[in-house]
């Protein structure tokens, strides 16, 4: 049975989404004409949006009115790539509150290297590892967090699948905490399921704050670690808020993003997109035009 965000949580999300984040919405509005990308991406009809969007699966959701503004293959199982890390962060937060420290073990580094790789024997706070996970999309951080939180990576993955079931993400299955596994290997989600997971993350202020952080620098001994948020639309597209990106050669681009204008948030999920930035711009442009004009829902606009 589909589960909807409760009104108190929804209102908290709407009112607090970017409070205290340092996001300057007025400045973003002043630069609005620059952030709407090309005029060819400024669409005013669902037909135009459907023609321009290239993602295999896409979902644009209006949480205020609980309605889907754009849908394509909502329940098609596809690889989530690094949007997997949303579930990893959620579980780590629930079990640790982002408190404590992790000593990096050799098995934590046996993965595709990060831009700022962890060193065996290094002690890193859980909070910093979650920053690595969500801002830098670091795969070694995912392994270190999974192992230290549940005792082993397989045990943590089991918890990920159990949590997905609890959230109503019934067509989601994880086999790793970082998202490198392909659909053929058994790692999958759907746009509808990923939206549920993303909403659960957005209801955690500490995780929201991390997702809207553009750059973070930490020091471990003599090592200075600087991470830049992979969300290229952050600070460039008006109202852009928390988001998690993903990409592998098999999954192509994946994206879970929240954007808010004039107090009205929209949530977007993209799976298997050749260009998530273009698809996201098209759909957010379309969605906010619908909200601004208060256009009556088309026949295809339905509750989630």
From TrEMBL:
Peptidase S11 D-alanyl-D-alanine carboxypeptidase A N-terminal domain: residues covered: 52-272
Enzyme class per UniProt: hydrolase
UniProt record, GO biological process: cell wall organization; peptidoglycan biosynthetic process; proteolysis; regulation of cell shape
Keyword Iron-sulfur assigned: no
Keyword Ribonucleoprotein: no
Binding positions for substrate per the UniProt entry: 244
Gene3D superfamilies in alphabetical order: DD-peptidase/beta-lactamase superfamily
Single annotated GO MF: serine-type D-Ala-D-Ala carboxypeptidase activity
Positions of the catalytic residues: 82 (acyl-ester intermediate), 85 (proton acceptor), 137
One matching Pfam family: Peptidase_S11
Family according to the record: Belongs to the peptidase S11 family.
Protein name per the record: Serine-type D-Ala-D-Ala carboxypeptidase (Penicillin-binding protein 5/6)
Record organism: Methylacidimicrobium tartarophylax
